[in-house]
Amino acid sequence: MSPWVLYGATGYTGVLLAEEAARRGHRPLLAGRNPQKLRALGERLNLDWKAVPLEDAAGLRALLKGAGAVLHAAGPFVQTSSPMADACLDTGCSYLDITGELPVFQALFARDAAAKAKKIALIPGVGFDVVPSDCLAAWVAAKLPGADTLELALAVLGQPSAGTAKSALGMVPGGGWVRRDGALVPFPPGKGVHPVRFSHREALVVPAPIGDLVTAWHSTHIPNITVCLAMPSSLAKILRVAWPVGAVGLPLFNQLLGFPAFRSRLDAQLERRTAGPDAEKLKHGSAHLYARASMKGGAFAEGWLDTSDGYDLTRHAAISAVEQVLARRPEGALSPSQAFGVDFVLGVPGTSRRDSLG
Ligand SMILES: NC(=O)c1ccc[n+]([C@@H]2O[C@H](COP(=O)([O-])OP(=O)(O)OC[C@H]3O[C@@H](n4cnc5c(N)ncnc54)[C@H](OP(=O)(O)O)[C@@H]3O)[C@@H](O)[C@H]2O)c1
What we know:
The protein is of the alpha/beta class. Helix content is 45%, strand content 23%. The chain contains 14 helices and 16 strands.
C-alpha cells in the first residue's frame, strides 16, 4: 500500500484516526502544525511525524510528495481545506477530509475537472458527515428512480468536540439553506420544525445547512433536498413559534461574530467547555438517520439507518475510505457513496439499515 499522510493528527479526532490507523497496521505519516504534540503522538504510536503549517506551500508539497493520499483532519475546514487541496492537485495526491461544512463541499466539487485531469480523488466528508447520510440518501433514491424530493434527517446522541463546535459556529453566518429545483436557496434558520419517526423514537427536527445539501445532490440528482437535524423538544417547541425572532436576531449575532475579539472569546469558551466524548461515551453514543425519497403522485421510499457514536463512526469510516482510495484509485470530486458504494457505511461496526416502500 502507498504511503499516506494524516494531517491534523493531534486534534481530538486526529488522535482517534491515528490510533485506528495504527490498530489496523497502517503507518501514516502524522502531520500538523504543532511539533511538540506531533512528537508525543508519534512516540506513543511509534509512527513518523512532520510539522508543516498550512501556510508553508512548499513544505506542504514536500510533505505530500510520493504519498497516495492525505486524510485531512484539521478543521474548521473553511479555513484549512483549500491550501491542502491545492497541494494535492499539484503533487497528484488524493485528498480526503472529515468536513461537514457546506461551503467546503461546494468548493471541492467545483474542482472535479481538475481532479480528473490529475487522476486523483477529492472526497470530502468521509466521517459522520456525510458517510451514513450520503449512503442512505443514495440507497433510498435507487429504490425510487425519478424521485423529485428527498428529505434527510439526523439524530445524534452524543457530545461534540471543540473542533466540531467551532466548525458549526462558523456556519452560522451563512444562514439556512435548502435545495429547490437543483439550486441552493436560502431558508430562514429555525423555520420548518416538524416531527420525524426515527427507528429509536419520534423527534422534532429542523432544516439545517449541512453538507448533504451538496453531496446528496451529487449522489442522487434529486432536485429538491431538505436536510434536518433533531433537537431537544424544548428548543424545538420554542423555535416553532419564535423562529421569526431568531431570523431577525441572526444578523445581529452575525455582526458580533464578525468581530475577531468576540469570535476568539467564543472559540476559547468552546475549547474549555467541549472536550469530545471519552472512551466510555464513544462506546455508548449512537446516531439515527432517516431518509425519504418521494415523487409527484405520492410514491415514496423510506430508509432508516442506526449507527454508533459520530466520532466512533468517523474513525472507522475515514480509515476505511483511505484504504479504498489507495487500493482502487478513484478519480474526480466524489461523495462517499459515489466513491465507495451505498453499502460502504455497513462496514462500520454497529451499523444497520432497513427500508419501506410506499
Ligand atoms: N465529519 C464528521 O463527522 C467529523 C467528525 C469529527 C470531526 N470533524 C471535524 O474535524 C475538525 C477537527 O475536529 P476535532 O474534533 O479534531 O477538533 P480539535 O480537537 O479542535 O482539533 C483541531 C485540529 O486541527 C488543527 N488545526 C486547526 N486549524 C489549523 C490550521 N489553520 N492549520 C493547521 N492545523 C490546524 C489543530 O491544531 P492545533 O492542535 O495546533 O491547534 C488540531 O490539531 C472539525 O472541523 C470538526 O468539525 C468532523
